[in-house]
UniProtKB/TrEMBL annotation:
This is Vitamin B12-dependent ribonucleotide reductase. One of its GO terms (molecular function) is ribonucleoside-diphosphate reductase activity, thioredoxin disulfide as acceptor. Pfam families: Ribonuc_red_2_N (PF08471), Ribonuc_red_lgC (PF02867), TSCPD (PF12637). Catalyzes the reduction of ribonucleotides to deoxyribonucleotides. May function to provide a pool of deoxyribonucleotide precursors for DNA repair during oxygen limitation and/or for immediate growth after restoration of oxygen. InterPro entries: RdRp_reductase_class-2, RNR_2_N, RNR_lg_C, RNR_NrdJ/NrdZ, TSCPD_dom. It catalyses: a 2'-deoxyribonucleoside 5'-diphosphate + [thioredoxin]-disulfide + H2O = a ribonucleoside 5'-diphosphate + [thioredoxin]-dithiol. Keywords: Cobalamin, Cobalt, Disulfide bond, DNA synthesis, Nucleotide-binding, Oxidoreductase. The lineage of its organism: Bacteria, Bacillati, Actinomycetota, Actinomycetes, Kitasatosporales.
Length: 962
C-alpha cells in the first residue's frame, strides 16, 4: 500500500528523526481521487432511544442522528450513546457519524503531518480518506478510548490496556492504589505482578512479620469496587498476578475459593448474593482476575511429580519445598470451583519478548492479551475479517490477502501516529510507552469467517486459515513498523534490544515457514505472509523497528458491535440463531447470515440451503437437518448449544495463532458443568505444551454470583412447562364470547372506564379504555393505546412486561383515586396497569413488582407478611380464592366487580413466558442452559462473553478492554 520516498518533509520530525527528507507514500485502496468517502454512501436520520428492560426507564435518548443506511440498529445505538461527544440536547453534541470520524481521523492526519510521516500533503489526504472509508464501512475500528478522547478538549488517552508495577515498600504499595484508581476512574483497566512484595513468612526490617501481598490485595479490591460503584457503568477491570515460587502462592490461590464458599453460605441464609445484589459487596476479591505465573521449572516438576521450591523475595533462597503436582492440583481445584486463578506461562512469554534488556515481562492487562514491560500501555485496533472474504463470479471464495495487508499497513501507521499526541494516566506509563511504542492490532469475526468458508472451528483447516491470517497481519505490521523507522526513526529502546528484537522476528518467520498449509483458502495467505516476513527481516536489519510490539488478539467487545461483527476476537460463534434489533423498535430472531454461505461453500444447492436454514430456525441446531451430511455438522459447532466446541478445541485454536502474535490472546476456555478437576489440569498442561502464553477456564455454573443462581433456575425449570420458542409469533384471538371486568375509576379528578376481557382459561387478552368525549384527542389516544396493548397481549407479550414498563410513569392527571387498593397514582397508565396487575397477575409476580392490595398491605402491617394464611389460598397457593370483599363499599364498582373477577381468575396462574433481550438469553431459552454471564450495570441486559471479558449487546458496555 505504501512506500518510503525521498521527498519534501511536512512538519517537525518525531523524536529520533529520519535521515534526509523521507516520508511515506500512501496508495489508494478503497477511495477515488476527487470523491470523498462520505459522498459514496446513502445517509439517513434515525432516532436512538435506549431503555432499561427491567423497568422501562430511558437510559439514553438522542433523535435525528445521521448514519449510513447499511449500519445496523445496534451499531447506531452503541456509537451514538458511547462515542458521540458533547452534552445531549446541546448544539455542541455530535449528531452524525461524519463528525465522529472527522474528529478522530483529522487529528491523526494532523499529527502525522506535524511529525513527518507523509511524503506530501497529497499522501496525507489519501491517508485521511482511506482511514475514514475503512471506519465508515466497518472494516476496522480503534479501541474505545480513541473514540472517547481523540479530538476533544480532555486528555487524549488512546490506550485501553495498562500494566503497573509495585515494589516491596509501603510508598510503592500506596502509589499502586493511587495509580490503579486513576486508571479505573477513566474507565480502563490495569494489571500488575505482586511478587516483589515479601511474603507473610518473611520478616520486616523491624523484626515483625510482613503482611504479604494477599493482605494488600484486599485494600486494592475495596478501592476498585468503590470507584466502580461511584458512577462507572462497568466494573473496574484489573489483573493480579503472583509467581508460582512466591511463598504466599497457596493463600493467593485460595482467596476467591474461600469467598465463593462465603457467597454460598450467605445466599443460603437468605442474603442477596446475585451479581449486582445488595449484599454481594460484602465479599472480597471480586473486582480482579487472578493468575498464577508459572515457569518451565515448575511445569516440568509437575510432569515428573518432584518437589518445587518457594523462594524468599528478599534473598532468593528456598524457604519451603512443596509437591509441585499437589500445588498444580490446588490451582486446578480453585479454577474448577470459581474460575480463578488463571495461568500464565512465564518462560514462553519471555521467549517471545522483543525488549528483554529493558526488563522482563511480569504481568498482563486484565484480559491477558497485552504483555510487555511494567508501567506501560497499549492501544488497540481490530480488523473485521468478514470484510476481506470475497466471492468470484463462479461462486468461489477467497481471502483477499493483498487488500488485508494494505489495510493493516494503514491502521498500524495510524496507531503509531497516535502515540505522538497521546496522553497517559501516569508519568511512568507515558515515558515507557513513548520509548517502546507498543501497539496491539488484532481482528474480530474469526468464528464467522471460518463458518462462512466451510471450516470447523476445531479443525486443521480452520486453524491453518486462522494462523495464516494472524501471521500475515503481524508480519505486515512489523514490515510497516520497519518502514516507519526508516522515516522517523526506531523506538528509543530499540538500540539496546536490537539483537533480541531481530531474534524474535526470526522466530516468527521460522514458525510461519514451518506451518502446515491445508487448502486453497489458506495457502495464498501463507504465501503473502512468507513474503511479508522476509521483508521484515531485511528492513529490520536496515532500519530497526518503530514499535516494540505490534499485535494482540483482544476481546473486541464494544468495537465489535460497532463493526456489526457476529463474533468477537478469536472466539467461535455463540449460536446459530441470533437476536437482531429492528429499525423503529422491536427485535427478531434470525439464523446467522454465515450459515447459507457455509452451505454454499460445502456444495449444497439453494433448495437444500433453504431447508437447512428452516431447520435451524426451528431447532436452533443442525442435528438431523434435512439433506445435511453428518460430516458437515462440525462446521456449525458453536461456543454453546447442542454441538458445542470441546475445551481442547479452544486451546488448539489459541495455539495455532499464538506463534504469530507479539502479545497474547484474550480468551476463556469454557468447560461444561460435567468437567472435572482433572479436565482443568489437562487444559493447563496442554496450554503449556502447545506454547500458549496464558489461559483461563470457566466451568459452567461454577459461580454463585450469577443473575439467577443455578438452584433457582433448576426450581424454575421444574415448575414451568417445557418452553417452545416460536420464531414467528402467532396472534391468538379471543373467542366471540369472553369473560370480562368493567371498572370505573377516577385519577386526580379525571374519570374513565376500563374493560378488561380474558381468554376463558388463560388470562388477559384485551383492554378497552374510555376517557373524555368521543372524537377528542384524548379519547383517540386512549383507543389507540388500548389497541396496541391488546394486540401485544394476543401476540404473547406477558402482562407483567406491560406492568413493569408502565407503572410509575409520571404525567398529569395524577393523584388520588377512588380505588382502595390503589389510593395514589402517578398517571392514568400507572393506575390502569396496577389495577390490571391486581386483577390478573398471581401474587408472587406482582409482589416482586411491589404491587399489593389494601388487604395484603394491612396483613403486612399486622403479621409482617403480605401472604394470607393457608385458608385464604387455594391448594396451590398461587391465586386467592376468596372474593375481594376488602374493597371500599362506596366504590361504584364494588357491587358487581367481585363476581365478575372470580369468573375469570384461573385456579393457578402459570408463570409468564420468559422474554429474551439478546442472543445470550435467546440461547438460554432454546437450550435450557445457563450462560453464566453477569447483568450489564448500565441497562440490565445479560451480557455475553467476549474473550475473557463480557460485553453487553444492548448498550455496548464491557467488563474489560474494548
Amino acid at each position: 500500500m505504501t512506500e518510503t520516498t525521498s521527498g519534501p518533509a511536512r512538519g517537525s520530525r518525531a523524536k529520533g528523526g529520519s535521515k534526509g527528507n523521507k516520508g511515506l507514500r500512501i496508495e489508494r485502496v478503497h477511495t477515488t481521487p476527487g470523491v470523498h468517502p462520505y459522498d459514496e454512501v446513502t445517509w439517513e436520520r434515525r432516532d436512538v432511544v435506549m431503555t432499561n428492560w427491567r423497568d422501562g426507564s430511558i437510559n439514553f435518548e438522542q433523535r435525528g442522528v445521521e448514519f449510513p443506511d447499511f449500519w445496523s440498529v445496534n451499531a447506531v445505538n452503541i456509537v451514538t450513546s458511547k462515542y458521540f461527544r458533547g452534552a445531549v440536547g446541546t448544539p455542541q453534541r455530535e449528531n452524525s457519524l461524519k463528525q465522529l470520524i472527522d474528529r478522530v481521523v483529522k487529528t491523526y492526519r494532523s499529527a502525522g503531518e506535524e511529525n513527518g510521516y507523509f511524503a506530501s500533503s497529497e499522501d496525507a489526504e489519501i491517508f485521511e480518506h482511506e482511514l475514514a472509508y475503512a471506519v465508515l464501512h466497518q472494516i476496522f475500528a480503534f479501541n474505545s478510548p480513541v473514540w472517547f478522547n481523540v479530538g476533544t478538549k480532555q486528555p487524549q488517552q488512546v490506550s485501553a490496556c495498562f500494566i503497573l508495577s509495585v515494589d516491596d515498600s509501603m510508598e510503592s504499595i500506596l502509589d499502586w492504589y493511587k495509580e490503579e484508581g486513576m486508571i479505573f476512574k477513566g474507565g480502563s483497566g490495569a494489571g500488575l505482578n505482586l511478587s516483589r512484595i515479601r511474603s507473610s513468612k518473611e520478616l520486616l526490617s523491624s523484626g515483625g512479620n510482613a503482611s504479604g501481598p494477599v493482605s494488600f490485595m484486599r485494600g486494592a479490591d475495596a478501592s476498585a469496587g468503590t470507584i466502580k460503584s461511584g458512577g462507572a457503568t462497568r466494573r473496574a477491570a484489573k489483573m493480579v498476578v503472583l509467581d508460582v515460587d512466591h511463598p504466599d502462592v497457596e493463600a493467593f490461590i485460595d482467596t476467591k475459593v474461600k469467598e465463593e464458599e462465603k457467597i454460598r453460605a450467605l445466599r443460603d441464609a437468605g442474603f442477596d448474593m446475585d451479581l449486582g445484589g445488595d449484599d454481594i459487596t460484602s465479599v472480597q476479591y471480586q473486582n480482579a482476575n487472578n493468575s498464577v505465573r508459572v515457569n518451565d521449572e515448575f511445569m516440568k516438576a509437575v510432569e515428573s511429580g518432584s518437589k518445587f521450591g518457594l523462594r524468599s523475595r528478599m534473598t532468593g533462597e528456598v524457604l519451603e519445598e512443596v509437591d509441585a503436582k499437589a500445588l498444580f492440583r490446588k490451582m486446578a481445584e480453585a479454577a474448577h470451583a470459581c474460575a480463578d486463578p488463571g495461568i500464565q506461562y512465564d518462560d514462553i512469554i519471555n521467549h517471545w519478548h522483543t525488549s528483554p534488556e529493558s526488563g522482563r515481562i511480569t504481568a498482563s492487562n486484565p484480559c491477558s492479551e497485552y504483555m510487555h514491560l511494567d508501567n506501560s500501555s497499549c492501544n488497540l485496533a481490530s480488523l473485521n475479517l468478514m470484510k476481506f472474504l470475497r466471492d468470484d463470479d463462479e461462486g468461489n471464495q477467497s481471502f483477499d490477502a493483498e487488500r488485508f495487508a494494505k489495510v493493516t499497513e494503514l491502521v498500524i501507521t495510524a496507531m503509531d501516529i497516535s502515540i505522538c499526541f497521546a496522553d497517559f494516566p501516569t508519568q511512568k506509563i507515558g515515558d515507557t510507552t513513548r520509548a517502546f511504542r507498543q501497539l496491539g492490532i488484532g481482528y474480530a469475526n474469526l468464528g464467522a469467517l471460518l463458518m462462512a468458508t466451510g471450516h470447523a472451528y476445531d479443525s486443521d483447516g480452520g486453524r491453518a486459515l486462522a494462523g495464516a491470517i494472524t501471521s500475515l497481519m503481524t508480519g505486515t505490521s512489523y514490515k510497516r513498523s520497519a518502514e516507519i523507522a526508516g522515516v522517523v526513526g526506531p523506538y528509543e529502546g530499540y538500540a539496546r534490544n536490537a539483537d533480541a528484537h531481530n531474534r524474535v522476528m526470526k522466530q516468527h518467520s521460522d514458525a510461519n515457514g514451518a506451518a502446515t498449509r491445508m487448502d486453497d483458502l489458506d495457502t495464498p495467505v501463507w504465501a503473502a505472509a512468507t513474503e511479508a516476513w522476509q521483508d521484515v527481516l531485511r528492513l529490520g536489519k536496515k532500519n530497526g523497528f518503530r514499535n516494540a510490539q505490534a499485535s494482540v488478539l483482544a476481546p473486541t467487545g464494544t468495537i465489535g458491535l460497532m463493526m456489526d461483527c457476529d463474533t468477537t476476537g478469536v472466539e467461535p460463534d455463540l449460536a446459530l440463531v441470533k437476536f437482531k434489533k429492528l429499525v423503529g423498535g422491536g427485535s427478531m430472531q434470525i439464523v446467522n447470515n454465515t450459515v447459507p454461505k457455509a452451505l454454499k461453500r460445502l456444495g449444497y444447492q439453494p433448495e437444500q440451503v433453504e431447508a437447512v436454514v428452516e431447520h435451524i430456525a426451528e431447532h436452533g441446531n443442525v442435528v438431523d437437518a434435512p439433506g445435511l451430511k453428518p460430516e458437515h455438522y462440525e462446521v456449525f459447532d458453536c461456543a454453546m448449544g447442542e454441538r458445542s466446541i470441546s475445551p481442547m478445541g479452544h486451546v488448539r485454536m489459541m495455539a495455532a495463532a499464538q506463534p504469530f502474535l507479539s502479545g497474547a490472546i484474550s480468551k476463556t476456555v469454557n468447560m461444561p458443568a460435567s468437567s472435572t478437576v482433572e479436565d482443568v489440569e489437562e487444559i493447563y498442561l496442554q496450554g503449556w505444551r502447545l506454547g500458549t502464553k496464558a489461559l483461563a477456564v470457566y466451568v459452567e455454573n461454577s459461580k454463585v454470583g450469577q443473575p439467577l443462581s443455578a438452584k433457582a433456575k433448576e426450581e424454575e425449570k421444574a415448575a414451568e412447562p417445557e418452553k417452545v420458542v416460536e420464531y414467528r409469533p402467532v396472534r391468538r384471538r379471543l373467542p366471540k364470547g369472553r369473560p370480562g371486568i368493567t371498572t370505573s375509576f377516577t385519577v386526580g379528578g379525571a374519570e374513565g372506564y376500563m374493560t378488561a376481557n380474558s381468554y376463558p382459561d388463560d388470562g388477559l387478552g384485551e383492554v378497552f379504555l374510555k376517557m373524555s368525549k368521543q372524537g377528542s384527542t384524548l379519547a383517540g389516544m386512549m383507543d389507540a393505546f388500548s389497541i396496541a396493548v391488546s394486540v401485544g397481549l394476543q401476540y404473547g407479550v406477558p402482562l407483567e412486561t406491560y406492568v413493569s414498563k408502565f407503572t410509575n410513569m409520571r404525567f398529569e392527571p395524577a393523584g388520588m383515586t377512588d380505588d382502595s387498593d390503589v389510593r395514589m397514582a402517578q398517571s392514568i397508565v400507572d393506575y390502569i396497569f396496577r389495577r390490571l396487575a391486581l386483577d390478573f397477575l398471581p401474587f408472587e409476580t406482582r409482589s416482586a413488582l411491589g404491587i399489593h392490595s389494601a388487604a395484603e398491605r394491612q396483613r403486612h402491617l399486622e403479621t409482617g407478611s403480605y401472604e394470607a394464611s393457608d385458608e385464604e389460598f387455594d391448594a396451590d397457593g398461587l391465586a386467592q380464592s376468596a372474593p375481594k370483599a376488602e374493597r371500599s363499599s362506596d366504590s361504584p364498582k364494588a357491587d358487581t366487580e367481585d363476581t365478575r373477577r372470580s369468573a375469570v381468575e384461573p385456579e393457578a396462574a402459570a408463570p409468564a413466558p420468559k422474554e429474551a433481550h439478546n442472543s445470550t438469553e435467546l440461547l438460554e431459552m432454546q437450550l435450557g442452559l445457563n450462560a453464566d454471564a453477569p447483568l450489564c450495570f448500565s441497562c440490565g441486559t445479560k451480557m455475553r462473553r467476549a474473550g475473557s471479558c463480557y460485553v453487553c449487546e444492548g448498550c455496548g458496555s464491557t467488563s474489560g478492554c474494548s
